[in-house]
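Support reply, case 0932

Customer input (verbatim):
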Amino acid sequence: MCAMLVSRALGNHVKICKLHNHQQKGLLQMETNPGSAPERKDRQVQIRNLTIKWAITVLSGVAVYLAPVPEGVTPQSWRLLAIFIATIVGSILRPAPGGAMVLLGIAAIAVTKSMPLSEAMIATVTDPANPNLKAVETLRIKSTLMGYADPVVWLVLAAFFMSRAMIKTGLGRRIALLFIRAIGHRSLGLGYALVGTDFLLASVIPSNGARSGGIIFPITKSVVEAYDSKPGPTAGRLGSFLMSFIYQCEVIVCATFLTGQAGNLLIQRFAKQQGGIDLNYPTWLMGAIVPSLICLMITPPLLYRLFPPEVTHTPDAAKFARMELEKMGRMSWREIVMLIIFAFVALMWATTNRLHAVDYSVVALIGICLLLLTSVIGWQDALAEHAAWDVFIWYGGMVRMAEALGETGITKKFAESAAGVTSGWRWWAALALLALVYFYAHYAFASISAHALAMYTPFLIVVTLAGAPPFLAAALLAYFSNLSAGLTHYGTTPGPIYFGADYVTQQKWWQLGLIASVPNILIWAVVGAVWWKILGWW
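Our regenerated output:
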């Protein structure tokens, strides 16, 4: 005891002396925290990991640039490919946020003058035989930034603002609570109530992160904690089931609508560019609705049977929903206006090219203008929607890079050489093999968009060269792009949200993802193909 007291006394004396010395020097500061050593070590690890990611990203581009240029490909086009590959690798490894990586890629293309220009384009500003170099370079910059003028990019931006309004007004939360009050008396019904909310919102809101993080997850967390289910020993009561259940249904919902998640609009563009297939809003939904509903009826109950929660009856969830709805009171005028605009946009999108010819992006912009004019959201709300501007930057840049790469013919050359692997196969066998490879390749990707950017176009070209019907191939790969995100806890934006709640171990999460992939693949490949045959797609 005496030794301890002496030790403490000496320690206090040392602290006092140090403080006195610091005061004398005019540098009053706190004594170094004993926990700072581990913190420094963590920072060193983070710096090392970041350095490795940057090194891999840069070296991937350098390796392509230094590789022999194939016959028929210009050095300029090859530089574009190198920058594109480095951008894709960077989007996967994330040494910087996705938007920053794409912005760096666009800047690299502009600085290295890697954006190809055809003689026809040059002829619009100067004489190709005696070109005005300043005019040509101005045209090249405009071509590099052309993706940000794409209507689809503005559609995505506007739809993100709509999700902001849905969360701000509380309408999204009210819809979720109404679902829970109606069918949330059992754990399976509770799961379906939350998924039903997501299904409804996905018809207009293309941000699965906003739907999950802003509406579905907070309610889910509140409900499971009401049943004393928290990370750790009590996770199995309800939390682990709901977190994995909702996520596996989330990827099915993403596949159901063109607006299920932002990458679908990118996939739609690739399908039209490479295969001439127009997967517009009603077409996408019509092709998805049958396999989607069957999946939602089979896959979730299968998971429930294999990994049931300890709590199977949840009357308190419905009670919780009633209480929350009472607190919210009657619908505010902002909620009513939001509901009307939501219905208007969904109806207009569903009837485009059938009852009217107003472009999808124009419909979205009209919706946002109405929200601004009625003060449902303000301009500061739009500016504060950081995810929207981030997507705007990476989406517009990647759209242009992928489009320019397709114009160079490099993608087609790659596909033609890769087609030799399935040479002599029946088209359905080639499609089956390549679709499975495409699906399970998502283990290597942290987002649906990165997966589609890297693999959708070349795989679509290869399977069509093997003789597969273009519409069938384009649709199957499009839907698989979404469904494959269920394999891991990082497959798409909501993954880290639900997994990060710490109710499910990574091993179990991956196990559930692998199990769910089997019925998802079978239903969409078999039932989907039959349904698309009925629709006359092939």
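We compared this against your earlier run and they match. Two observations from our side: Confidence is low (pLDDT under 50) at residues 1-32. The first helix runs from residue 2 to 25. Please reopen the case if you see a mismatch on your end.
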